[in-house]
C-alpha cells in the first residue's frame, strides 16, 4: 500500500481583477471580474514507504502548494489524496502526529529562546514519552553536530544551525512522513551539503518517507533516486533521475580548443555551435553523430584539445521547463 | 484535559523566562499601569469634591468600579491579549500554517503563548483599590459576594476573550489588520464610568451587543450588593453565546483560509 | 494574480481599519465628553458657579477644549514606529530635518476621513448644546487663540516625534505612547478644568507644554485669561518648541547611528 496517494489533485486560486483608475474602482464596487489561477493542475502520483522523492520545479511551479495540501494546510479545489491512509485536510490528530513539515527559511522555533525550549513544547504537543524524547534529541543532535548549541537563543544561531534545530524539532515525534520544503535555501555550500547528508542518512536508517521540494538541482542529484518535475502546476516527469537523463538527453557537448583561429561559419556546417571564440568552440552534437563529428573536426581543423561531455542535468531540467508540453 | 494543562504550564514558564529577559519592559509596564490607575483615581477624587453621587454611584462606588474595570482589564492583558494580538501577523507571515498543522487546538496555542507577568502585580493593586472602595463605602454581605462575584468575573473574562478573538480573527480576512485591538480598547475604556449615565438605549446596547455593562458593571454591582439574581444568571448566558460565536467564526475563517489561501 | 487580491484587501482593510480605529477612539471620546457634560450638569444642580465657572462656561470648556484637542492631535507616533521597524527610514537617515519636514507636511496635508469625522461630530455636539455655549467675539483674543492652537499643534507634533523615535531603542512603544497620551490628557485639562486643582498644580501645569493643547487656549477663549497672560503662554510655548526641537536633533543623531549600526 502506498504511503502517499495523490489522484487528480487540483488547486485553483481566485482573485479579482483590479484595473487602475477611479472609474474602474467605482465600477468594482458593483461588479468584479473573478479570475482564476491554477497553482496545481490535476496531478497524480504515488509514493511508497521509505522513498525519498524530489519535487523539482521553478518558483511558482506548485511544489509548495502540493506539500501544503498533503500536510492539510490547504484544501484542494478538487481531487483526492491520502497520506498514511488519512485525508490530510481533514486534519485528524492521528494523522498530524505522524507527519512533520519543515519549510526552509520559515521558523517554527521560538526566536528568543533556546531551541531546547521549543523541543519541549513539541514534545508535549506530540505527546512524546520522556525516554524517547531524550534519546531522539541526543541522537539527532549528535548526528547533526549541534549538541552544544541547544541552549543558545535561536536568533543567535546561524541559518545552518537554525535549520538543523528545525529538523530536530520536526523529527522529535518520529514522523513516518516528512515534508521538506526548500530545506537548503539560503544556506552556505557546506551547510547545504551537511543537510543533504543528514537527510539521506536519516531516510536510510529510519525508512521515513520523505518528500523534498527544491529548485536546486544539487539537492535532487544528491538525494533522490526518483524525481517529480512540476512546472506551472503540472507534472512533466515522474521517474528515476537516471532515466530522465536518458530520455531527454539526445546529444552530447563537444568542447574544442584550437591552435589557430577558426571561423564560426565553417563550424556551423557540421552542427549547432553554442559558443564560439576564435580559439574555442562548444558544439551540441546528436549522440549518433558524435564520433563522426569529432573525427571530422580533428582532421579538418588545427585542434589543440577536444572534450566530449554529458549535458549537465541543469540544462536538461531547464529544457523541460522551457518547452511547453514535453 | 491534562495535556492542555501541561502545555499551559510550559507556555507560562516560557513567558516567565521572556519576562526575565526583558526586565526593562517588565518594570515599565508595571509603572505605566500604576500611573494610569493613579490618574483615574485622582480624577474620581477631584470630580467628587464637588458632588456626592453620579447616577446613584458614590465616590466609594466609583472607586470599586474602577478597581473592577482595571482588574478585568489586567486579567485579560496578563493572559490572552498579547497572544491573540499576534494573529493577523501570524497569518500574514505564514506561521499560521505550522500552527494549523499541529495536533493541538490552534486557538489555545495562539492565546496562551504570551502571558504578561507584569500585570500580576498590578492586579494586586486593583484588588487593593477594590478593597479600599468597599471599606469606605457599601459592601454586600460576604456570602453573596462569594457566590456571585466569581461567576460574574469569569463571565466578563470569557466575553472579553471572545470579543478580542472575534476581532482578531479578521486577520484571516484582511491582511495585517493589527490596529484592531484599538477598537476594543477604545470601547472598553468607556466602561470605567457607570453606563447608567447614558440613558436607556445605550444601557440596552451595553447589555447585549456591546456587553460592557455585563462585563464590568455587574461584578462591581455584585460587590456593592446591587445586583439581582436574574442579572447573575444572565451574564454566563451572554458569555456562552459570545464564546460560541467567536469559536464558530474562528473555525469558519480557518476553513476559508485553507480553501482560498 | 493572488497578489492583486492581497493588495486590494490590504489597502481597503488598512484604510477601513485605520478609520475604524480612529472612529472607535472617537466614539469612546464622545462618550467621555457626553459623560462629562452630564456630570457637570448634575454637579451644577443647586449652584450657580463651581470654581468660578458658570454651567455655560463649563460646557463651553469641555466642548471648545475638545475641539482644540482634535485640531492639535496627530497619529504620528504609530506611523513613525512602523517606519523605523520596517526600515523605511534609511533614506532619511542623513538629514533629520528632511524627515521632520517630510512627516510634518504629510501630517498637515492629511485631511483624512477620521479627522473630518471627529471634527464634524464635535461641531455636531456643539450645535446641540449651542444654547449653552458662551460666545465671545473679541478679535484679539481669537487671534491669540489661533496662534496658541497652531503652536500647540507643533508641540504635540514634536512630542509624538520624540516618542516615535524611541522605536530606535525599544520594541515596546505602545505602552509609552498610551501612557504619555493619558498623562497629556490629564495634564492638559482634558478630563476636567485645571482650575479645580490647587494653585501650585496649576502653576506646574502651565510650565509644562501639555496644558496648551486644551486648558490654556480654552481659558483664553472664555476670556478667563488676560491678553497678557495669553502672550506669556505663547512665550512658554515658544520655549518648549525650541527645547523639543533640540531634543529631536539630539535623539535623532543618536538614534540613526544605532539604526545604521544594527540595521533594524
Automatic annotation (TrEMBL), chain A:
Keyword set, alphabetical order: ATP-binding, Nucleotide-binding, Transport
Key word DNA-binding present: no
Keyword Protein transport: no
Pfam families: ABC_tran (PF00005)
Location of the ABC transporter domain: 4-257
Listed GO MF terms: ATP binding; ATP hydrolysis activity
CDD domains noted in UniProt: ABC_NatA_like
Highest rank taxon of the organism: Bacteria
Identification of the protein by name: ABC transporter domain-containing protein
Source organism of this protein record: Candidatus Uhrbacteria bacterium RIFCSPLOWO2_01_FULL_47_24
Organism ancestry: Bacteria, Candidatus Uhriibacteriota
TrEMBL record, chain B:
Bilayer-spanning residue ranges: 20-48, 120-139, 145-167, 202-220, 232-250
Keywords noted in UniProt: Membrane, Transmembrane, Transmembrane helix
Cited InterPro entries: ABC-2_transporter-like
Pfam family for this entry, one: ABC2_membrane_6
PANTHER family, per database record: SLR0610 PROTEIN, SLR0610 PROTEIN-RELATED
Protein name: ABC transporter permease
Source species: Candidatus Uhrbacteria bacterium RIFCSPLOWO2_01_FULL_47_24
